[in-house]
Structure to design on (216 residues):
């Protein structure tokens, strides 16, 4: 018999899949540089609540005055303001916290007015003159060149270049480039004065830079 020879063809190897080019990671948007916020000077400052002080250049402070003592909070050429402190006990957070603090209860302004500043104007705001609705008829008194003055709700007075006006419990004193606003409000104290004063000072133009006012 003739023999049959089987011829095996080599197995066909499958070709490897084509290699994909490496993918680059998604680009990330660079983070913006950190911006440092600087406190900008303002043209006003204020004293409020028990009391907290907010200064014209962004500073803040708390102040605890001695009972019934006067403090010079503001002084500029021809103008000065003194504030009286009184102790008070009040509660916060729904009565869960009892605070022994102090409030401003009197504002006393003195200014040199008239030709060459030869006359004196003295005005005082008394928180004790406010009634249960935070207004009164004799809240501000003082003198204009030794003439007695009394101002209450809706009243106003001019003493040379100094003007004083009052709406309800808010009094506005304007002299030269300066404005002082005094607002009376309830303290809800469990002991001590029933009304306090919040005070703010502001200046127009560059007067402060040229005259360097100071005070507490």
């Amino acid at each position: 018999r003739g023999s049959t020879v089987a011829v095996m063809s080599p197995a066909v190897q499958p070709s490897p899949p084509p290699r994909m080019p490496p993918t680059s990671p998604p680009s990330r948007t660079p983070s913006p540089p950190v911006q440092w916020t600087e406190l900008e000077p303002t043209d006003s400052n204020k004293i409020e609540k028990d009391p907290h002080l907010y200064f014209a250049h962004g500073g803040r402070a708390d102040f605890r005055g001695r009972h019934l003592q006067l403090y010079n909070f503001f002084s500029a050429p021809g103008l000065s303001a003194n504030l009286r402190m009184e102790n008070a006990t009040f509660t916060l957070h729904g009565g869960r916290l009892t605070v022994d603090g102090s409030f401003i209860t009197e504002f006393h302004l003195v200014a040199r007015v008239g030709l060459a500043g030869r006359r004196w104007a003295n005005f005082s705001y008394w928180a004790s003159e406010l009634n249960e609705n935070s207004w009164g008829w004799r809240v501000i008194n003082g003198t204009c060149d030794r003439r007695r003055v009394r101002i209450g709700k809706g009243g106003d007075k001019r003493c040379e270049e100094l003007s004083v006006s009052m709406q309800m419990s808010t009094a506005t004193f304007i002299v030269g480039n300066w404005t002082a606003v005094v607002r009376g409000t309830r303290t809800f104290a469990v002991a001590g004065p029933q009304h306090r004063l919040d005070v703010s000072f502001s200046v127009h133009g560059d007067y402060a830079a040229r005259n360097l006012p100071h005070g507490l």
About this structure: DSSP finds one helix and 14 strands in the chain. Confidence is low (pLDDT under 50) at residues 2-12, 33-43. The helical segments are 207-211. Residues 207-211 form the longest helix (5 residues).
